[in-house]
Amino acid sequence: MKILAVISQKGGVGKTTLATALAVAAEQDGKSVALFDLDPQASACFWADRRKATGKGETPVVRDVNFNRLPHVLEAMRSGGADLVILDCPPQQRDIADAALSAADMVLIPTRAEALDIRAMTQTVRLTQQMGKRASVVLTFCPPTGAEIEQAREIVAQLKSDLVPVSIHLRKAYARAQQDGQAAQEYEPTSKAAAEIQSLYKYSAIALYGETQHGKAKTKSRRTP
């Protein structure tokens, strides 16, 4: 079982949007997936409620998890045969961040290419490094043009962290899909938003599971936990 933590010390950078979309992408790839909502605001749980209410299904499994119980719940998922657990973490909660980082096999840090967001991203990267983990930074809400994107990329390089080679742009499909309990690739399967999520998922799967074979990461499919 692999654990992916989606984390940032600042809100409004798209953590839950990416966590839910990646959970759906992993399930579409045949994996047994669980999404743990560690945020007291419970945005991922709200997404799951909307998903059930609109008839989109009972999976991916989304659970409201107290960080103090995280090791125990993860062990139960491991025993149950889960392939992937995604941790949707809240901003500005050092104790929750420490618990998530301790467990994570991969750390994904979303950030806007704006001054306050970059400052928070820098803090999150350093916290990740202090925990002995390597950070993967993904730029979110990217505008079509602007020097800010290139400046953000240079800062990520200076921090000696990994820059995800796909940017998540400001697209209506993301927000509309969330409101309906879907991921962008479900809401508009042929859209640019869907392509971005699939590229981000491919990057994450390779980072988590190793090199690809015939274009797909080497994984095993199991029943949904």
From TrEMBL:
It comes from the Bacteria. Residues 4-182 form the CobQ/CobB/MinD/ParA nucleotide binding domain. This is AAA family ATPase. PANTHER family: COBQ_COBB_MIND_PARA NUCLEOTIDE BINDING DOMAIN-CONTAINING PROTEIN, P-LOOP CONTAINING NUCLEOSIDE TRIPHOSPHATE HYDROLASE. InterPro entries: CobQ/CobB/MinD/ParA_Nub-bd_dom, DNA_Partitioning_ATPase, P-loop_NTPase. SUPFAM superfamilies: P-loop containing nucleoside triphosphate hydrolases (SSF52540).
